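Hi support team,

I've been running sequence recovery on a batch of backbones for a student project. Most finish fine, but this one hangs at about 90% for roughly twenty minutes before it completes. I'm not sure whether the input is malformed or the queue is just slow. I've pasted the structure tokens below so you can try to reproduce it. Let me know if you need the job ID as well.

Thanks,
M.K.
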């Protein structure tokens, strides 16, 4: 087929071919439409999360910890019966399916959605910090209570609980533990990104199962998951560690989770669509104050 014939063929199909170097802000054919749509959904959802009152904020964190606790129960039951981490990882997905369908939240899920809102300058950094602290506190409190119920209700799981919880303490404050935490943060944030790419139930359940399997079967260092497993061990009174070691382990994991979630997923996804970020900054949603002292983590050269 000659060049002229090819051009006639394309024209006949009603398809315009954008020139090289086209601006995605002006030419839809070269724009990352799916990424832009996901970013805009994240900005809108982030505004809602950051604007929550204190009691709903804590309550959402509490139910998030309880939902993950159901996954911990499933994991302990299956691993105790089969001694298989792979099967335990599949069972653990129960908790993340509950998270997705029940509209509860984990601290680490907030590495994407409200961060996008802050980068779009439609919320303040202090609001993001308030959301993180409140959700984390709620997750831990709800998880602590539910794991206590697990050990009281299923005392036969005590041995497995001590084994599973002790693993994270034995990792120590090491580069291996940090690397596993970075991966864990990236996995959970990628799950959140995929779930906001569509409104269908399948788009929420499949990423939830995938992320839960990787976290549990791979024993990734996720600050909420490892905390709940350590809580189950502590509730047995047979753990070889205490709450101080739990706090050190969970804190190190949280730092790695932030690096992996925000650094490896959120910022890289957002810089795919700098024009969309600029548009959100210049044309915020109704009621959003413009020109205030909000901070942004996006490089200024994207303006």
């Amino acid at each position: 087929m000659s060049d002229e014939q090819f051009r006639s063929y394309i024209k006949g199909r009603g398809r315009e071919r954008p020139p090289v170097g086209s601006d995605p802000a002006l030419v839809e054919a070269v724009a990352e439409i799916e990424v832009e749509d996901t970013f805009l959904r994240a900005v809108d959802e982030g505004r809602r999360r950051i604007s929550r009152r204190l009691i709903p904020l804590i309550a959402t964190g509490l139910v998030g910890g309880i939902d993950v606790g159901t996954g911990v129960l499933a994991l302990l039951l299956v691993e105790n019966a089969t001694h298989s981490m792979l099967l335990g990882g599949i069972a653990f997905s129960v908790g993340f399916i509950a998270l997705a369908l029940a509209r509860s939240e984990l601290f680490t899920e907030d590495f994407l959605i409200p961060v996008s809102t802050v980068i779009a300058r439609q919320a303040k950094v202090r609001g993001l910090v308030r959301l993180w602290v409140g959700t984390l506190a709620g997750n831990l409190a709800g998880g602590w209570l539910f794991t206590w119920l697990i050990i009281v209700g299923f005392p036969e799981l005590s041995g497995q609980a001590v084994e599973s919880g002790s693993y994270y303490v034995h990792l120590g404050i090491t580069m291996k533990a940090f690397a596993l935490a970075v991966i864990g943060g990236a996995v959970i944030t990628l799950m959140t990104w995929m779930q906001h790419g569509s409104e269908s139930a399948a788009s929420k359940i499949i990423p939830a199962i995938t992320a839960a399997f990787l976290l549990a079967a791979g024993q990734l260092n996720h600050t909420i998951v490892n905390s709940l497993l350590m809580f189950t061990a502590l509730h047995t009174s047979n753990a070889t560690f205490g709450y101080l070691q739990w706090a050190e382990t969970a804190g190190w994991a949280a730092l790695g989770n932030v690096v992996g979630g925000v650094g490896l997923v959120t910022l890289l996804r957002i810089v795919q669509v700098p024009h969309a970020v600029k548009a959100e900054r210049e044309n915020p949603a109704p009621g959003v104050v413009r020109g205030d002292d909000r901070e942004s983590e996006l490089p200024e050269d994207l303006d």
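--
Follow-up from support: It reproduced on our side and the slowdown came from queue contention, not your input. Confidence is low (pLDDT under 50) at residues 291-303. No action needed from you.
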